[in-house]
Structures are given as C-alpha cells and as structure tokens.
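Holo prediction — oxa(dethia)-CoA.
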Amino acid sequence: MALVGSGSAVPAVSLSNQRLSERVDTNDEWIRTRTGIAARRVSAPDEPLTVLATRAAQAALDHAGWSPEDLDLILLATSSPDDLFGTAPRIQAALGARNAVAFDLTAACSGFLFALITAGQYLATGTMGRALVIGADQLSRWVDWDDRSTCVLFGDGAGAVAVQACPAAEGGLLGFRMRSDGSRNGCLTLAQSDTHRELLAGVSAQVGGFAPIRMNGQEVYKFAVREVPAILKELLEATGTPADQLDWLLLHQANQRILDAVAERFAIPQQRVLSNLASYGNTSAATIPLMLDEAVKDGRVQPGHLLASSGFGAGLSWGGALLRWSGPQA
Ligand code: UT7
C-alpha cells in the first residue's frame, strides 16, 4: 500500500502544566523534566470523539484528493469510543463514505500502527483499494483528574492517513512486527468497573462502566525502553535497513525520555526524531498520525522519506513498522 494523505484535528482548549497544577499537586518543572510535556488538549463536553475523528479523516481525504465514495474501508483505532458497538460507522456516515465498511480496532497506544498494518493486509490481497486509517482518543474522559501520576500525561486528539493499493515495489509498508503480552496487562488498564446489581433473588448482573486509567508508570517505562528498541532492531535487520538510512523516527509520543532512549540506541540524531509531546502530551492511538500529519504539512517529511515507527502501551502491546511516505498522487 502507499501512504498518500494525512490529516489531524485537536480540540481548541489547551491545558498548560501551570493551569493543571492549580487542580492537582504537580508543577511545570516536574512534568517537563520527567516527560517533555508542556500542555495537552482537552475536548469540550459537546465535542465527541466522532467529531474530532471526522475532522481528521476529512482532512486526510482532502489531502489525498479523494472523495468519500472512493473509500472501501475506514478503520478507527481508539480506546475511547463514543459507542462501544463501534464509532467508525458514525464517521462513515459523517463523511458520506457510503461504499466503505467501517469498524473500530482497540489496541491502546499501539492501535494506530496495528490498524495501519491491518488495512495494509486488505490492500495487499487486492480485496480493497482505498482505506482511511484513523487514530483518535479522548482519554480526558477516562483519566482520574486527581491522580497526578497519570493525569499530567494524557491529552485528546485525532489523526488519519489515507492509504491505497499499489504495486509491491512502490509500497509504503516495507515491513512490520506486532506483539502482545497479556500477562502484563495489569501495568496499564482502563478496565470494566466492578459494580453489580441484583436483578432478582439469586440473579446479579454487572453494571456497565469503566474505572479510570491505572498505570504502573515505572513498569511501563521499563517495558518501552526495552521492547521498542528490540522490535525496531529486529525490523531493521529483517528489511536490511541500516539505521542511518532512516529519515525519521516516528514513535508513539508517550514520554520524551523514551524517544531519547530509542534514538540513542540507534544513534539517530535529535533533529531526525519527530516529537510534539510538548504541545499535546500522550494522545494514545492518535499520537503517530497526529505527529506524521504535522511533519508532512510543515514539509519535514517529504515524498520518498523512510520512517521507522513504533507504537507501544496497554495490553501490553507493541509493534514496529518501516514506512515510506508517498504523499498525494497526481
Ligand atoms: O502510552 C504508553 C503509556 N505510558 C507510558 O509510556 C508512561 C511510561 N512511564 C513514564 O513515562 C514515567 O514512569 C512517568 C512520567 C509516568 C513517571 O516518571 P518517573 O520518573 O517514573 O516517576 P515516579 O513514578 O518514580 O515518581 C517519582 C516521584 C514520586 O515521589 P516520591 O515517591 O519519590 O516522593 C511521585 O509521587 O514523583 C512523584 N510524582 C509527581 N510529582 C509531581 C509522580 N507524579 C508527579 C507529578 N508531579 N505529576
């Protein structure tokens, strides 16, 4: 498949570290030095995920020069859907993409990468021709705003990439790896809350609803700095790609220290590591397409550029992909 268009959207309200410290016991210096984050976006109550994701999706369609009817597939990677039965169909309707099948995929912060790889399989078999892969999250809904160890990290956002089938030699997904380790699931959860209701004598049912995000930050940090370099090394070796051939490192934006550690491992200079953590924090499934769209639109990422990407997070899940950006086709 070829990567031919990108788009993104973020809520208007930006919450600085300074403002956040008026609410919870933290400070700008701690957050900046430990994470690289200076601010995050927070969706307004009347701004559901569908709206944010549709804005990003429409921008990617416009960038690719496609009309909505051209789409065969819309994949939405998210952990914060508007509807647990699926939010992608709402986006399909909002776009007017009546020929596309649309469904959600959940793999937390690895979600966008997993969805991109999944879309790539449909395109590679020739079953489908054009797809839109969206990563969108509103973790502001699910953060415990009194838990300073997590609430400073997350923000809301959406990004999308338009991909189309193409001859293998011109493909933009040069290799990939995906991993899960459910035995470490407890390190980072947004789990069903443990509430029950007695319906009748002897018959109880769970009440739907989720507990806020819980994270063992140090364990997740150690996992990321161990597994991300390992999976990228495996990928670069398997594709015969020396690290100095990479134009960009496009990692899930979780913590600047994680980006720095991975870059150091491959001796990739700072100026080739894409980072917008300072402005948006960790937007979960949205970080990779949000970052990519920013770098495409400001001209850093050019057609033909090679990017090593990695998503990682809850599951635990992680993955890597070697990508080549094509840009809009004439
Ligand atoms: O999308 C993927 C998911 N998430 C991640 O990738 C996150 C990975 N983990 C991390 O990025 C880091 O572990 C954090 C940024 C979450 C935390 O950094 P840390 O260096 O591991 O800090 P820590 O948890 O060891 O806490 C150090 C101290 C503690 O105080 P004491 O016990 O040493 O007195 C915390 O209570 O910092 C305190 N602390 C804070 N202080 C001010 C924790 N959060 C805050 C805060 N403001 N927001």
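READOUT: The mean pLDDT is 97.
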